[in-house]
Design goal:
Blueprint: E1 2-7, H1 11-21, E2 27-33, H2 40-53, E3 61-63, H3 77-80, H4 102-112, E4 118-122, H5 127-135, E5 143-149, H6 165-169, H7 171-178, E6 184-187, H8 189-192, E7 196-197, H9 199-206, H10 211-231, E8 236-237, H11 241-248, E9 253-258, E10 260-262, E11 273-275, E12 287-293, H12 295-306
Parallel strand pairs: 1-2, 1-4, 2-3, 4-5, 5-6, 6-12
Antiparallel strand pairs: 7-8, 9-12, 10-11
Helix pairs in contact: 1-2, 1-10, 1-11, 4-5, 5-7, 9-10
The structure holds beta-D-ribofuranose (BDR) and calcium ion (CA).
EC number: 3.2.-.-
Pfam families: IU_nuc_hydro (PF01156)
Organism: Palleronia abyssalis
Length: 309
């Protein structure tokens, strides 16, 4: 299957990219970077660092939006560290950034490839995806589906009491995507907080004794600090890799087809995903909202694939 990964790396973004690059079922047409966890100059750099770690310098990496559609950028160095990829010491990338703008690449690719054959995998704020949909509305019906990490229902929130980071940073972009009519698969905190890198799972990465295994162990060592402190959880939550794992093995996940609307007006609840889990309204269903996963199956898949790199 053909995918474009839209990302703001981020340690968990990095693991999602590595999982995709390690999986023969998936063809990564390109990686588009967006500002999010850290500013754009770092996310474009980090995306290339990860491609080089996977020895995949053939993957084109594009720079997208520096700012959300209507708001100043909010970043998450308190979670990901100053570089966005704190933990391992990885060399600066030597592969070039593409000249083409990320939004143009997304539009051009969707118009070139056969309709219904390209899946978008956004794992950062939805700015690039919304810009593409706003600029070229014809692409909406050509997208096979969008499998995104964002939002929360029972587990709200991780940047405010009401909101998850990716949706909070650019709620107007999220609203554009959720109202686009494109089939959506949503990985909210409800499921990603169950994909925890426990000590045993971290050891399994380290025991690969490869550059990728060691880097992933070091990244998740760093990344677990925030969640252990805040939620008392048993290791780092691998939010973003849930998207790629769903593409590979959807049976590992369960969820419901529901309506989700995005709060854009209130400051207090900005970026809240108002998820009609119980079917209270008759608003049209627009998302497969995932609530649970087989965590051991997920980590078996991830460990098996990462070991191939
Ligand atoms: C999301 O925000 C970022 O910090 C992570 O990379 C993930 O995409 C989790 O809320
Ligand atoms: Ca991310």
């Amino acid at each position: 299957m053909k995918i474009i990964i839209d990302t703001d790396p981020g340690q968990d973004d990095a693991v999602a990219i590595l999982l995709a690059l390690a999986s023969p079922e998936i063809e990564v047409l390109g990686i588009t970077a967006v500002a999010g966890n850290v500013p754009l100059d770092l996310t474009t750099k980090n995306a290339r660092i990860i491609c080089e770690l996977a020895r995949r310098t053939d993957i084109p990496v594009f720079a997208g939006a520096r700012q959300p559609l209507k708001r100043p950028l909010v970043t998450a160095e308190h979670v990901h560290g100053r570089t966005g990829l704190d933990g391992p010491t990885l060399p600066d990338p030597t592969m070039p950034l593409q000249d083409q703008d990320a939004v143009e690449f997304i539009i051009e690719t969707l118009r070139r490839e056969e309709a219904g054959t390209v899946t978008l995998v956004p794992i950062g704020p939805l700015t690039n995806i919304a810009l593409a949909l706003l600029k070229a509305p014809d692409i909406a019906e050509r997208i096979e589906r969008i499998v995104l990490m964002g939002g929360a229902y029972f587990e709200v929130g991780n940047i405010t009491p009401a909101a998850e980071f990716n949706i909070y940073v650019d709620p107007e972009a999220a609203e554009t995507v959720f109202r686009s009519g494109v089939p959506l698969v949503v990985m909210p905190l409800d499921v990603t907080h169950k994909a925890l890198v426990t000590k045993a799972r971290n050891d399994a990465f380290r025991q690969m004794d490869t550059p990728v295994g060691t880097a992933v162990a070091q990244m998740t060592d760093f990344f677990e600090r925030f969640d252990k402190q805040k939620y008392g959880s048993d290791g780092a939550p691998l939010h973003d890799p849930c998207t790629v794992a769903w593409l590979l093995k959807p049976d590992l996940f369960t969820g419901r087809e529901i309506n989700v609307e995005i709060e854009c007006l209130s400051d207090l609840t900005r970026g809240m995903t108002v998820a009609d889990w119980w079917g209270i309204t008759d608003r049209p269903k627009n998302s497969l909202f995932i609530g649970d996963l087989d965590a051991d199956g997920f980590f078996d898949l991830l460990t098996d694939r990462l070991a191939r790199l």
